[in-house]
Amino acid sequence: MCDTDTDIETEIDGTVTAFCYCGWVEYGHNTETANAAAYAHQNAPDVIDADAFTAAAV
Ligand SMILES: [Zn+2]
pTM of the prediction? Predict the structure, then answer.
């Protein structure tokens, strides 16, 4: 899971980008799916967290 804040932003083309201040980002959402993606990111198990992957790869 991620303790950093997530947010969503509507792009000029109408798609919605979900992002997190940890550096995670997903493009091409609508408002509903972007919120769901951000929620899923924040609650994702540590095993698929980018930081956890980096630590495991060392
Ligand atoms: Zn994050």
Answer: 0.72
Nearest to 19 by CA among 33, 46, 3, 37: 37
Instruction: Tell me the CA–centroid distance for residue 41 and ligand 1, in Å.
Output: 6
Phi, psi of 16 (to 5 degrees): -115, 130
What distance in angstroms lies between residue 30's CA and the mean position of ligand 1's atoms?
A: 19
What domain count does the chain have? 1
- Give the model confidence (pLDDT) of 5-53 as tens digits: 999 999 999 999 999 999 999 999 999 999 999 999 999 876 555 555 5
Residue 21 lies in a domain: yes
Domain limits for position 47: 6-57
Around ion ligand 1, residues with a beta carbon closer than 5 Å are 2, 4, 20, 22, 24
